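Input.
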Amino acid sequence: MDVEEKIALVKRRPFAEVITEDELRLLFESNKHPTHYIGFEISGMVHLGTGLMTAMKIKDFKEAGIKPTIFLADYHAWINGKLGGDLDRIQQVARGYFKSAFLSLGLDEGVDFVLASELYEKLGKDYWKDVLYISKSASIARMLRCTTIMGRSEKDALDCASILYPAMQAADIWALDIDIAHAGIDQRKVHVLSREMSEKAKRKKVIAIHGHLMTGLTGPGRMDTRFLDSLEKSQKEGIDRPVGWARTDEDIIQMKMSKSKPDSCIFIHDAVEDIERKIKNAYCPPKMLPDNPIMDICQYILLRNPDSVFKIERSVKFGGNLELKSFGELQRAYMQGKLHPMDLKNAVSSSLSKLLEPSRKYFEKHKELLAQV
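Output.
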């Protein structure tokens, strides 16, 4: 596989951006097997965004020759008050349920799992020296801006440890000695911080690859009146998307799938009837594409591959069955009103249920892991 083919794999959906593509090209030219990491707080059940999309992307990376690591960020989850702030429980879930979630998605070979606290124990003072170096090199205001990586607003009441969180995440990259940092687009600030600190400290500068964040099933229309106002104005003017709608970091936090809001997401082990119920109730306005969670699932999961085929079964009365081979085809049919939201939802429910069957069966056999969370 040549370098351009590898870059194409890296940029396959749900890709959003790479900082920078020129650096990535140079990396592939000089290293056949660069190293990668993606980190997760241990904070509850795994959904489409954290689990399925990550697994799909890591499989792309492996195909491109990249050696992946999943970083189980137990200390970070402790700082962020996840699972009741119980560190022992967080570590139990990290080693048990959370790791198993990715194994159930087919990441059982060639993926290294690293528990943060074990790495810190191994590195000792060298790791904490890096944390302090980064903390001394950045202002408190900069660190507060980065706390949005925790899924919180700058305005939230934070304890002192939260200000250290971004410095720890930046130091994790040095500790793992990886070439590529991978995360959702909401982690961009801390990756930029790491890159800037690396230049200052003359350390290896990581390449940052960010993925699309899945819109929560409840949709922005139910979360933010500004979106509704913009949408109403656009429709009156005959525009097919909301105008004047600019996302802030807080908007991103509110709009994405969240395990703390179970009806906003599909968990990888959800029962078929739960998937059907959640999709049926999901926000999916007719002829509207932006911030439509059902179209998001189609674009970034069901129709992400060139050879994808998305089947929609419906009666002849409503146009008969459809077979769509690209998101562009689906987009045109939906925008033109040739596809009803409920027909789309039914097809998405069916496709997701089949796609998640391995995880569902895995956890049916290992109910003790689900009991951990």
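The longest helix spans residues 87-104.
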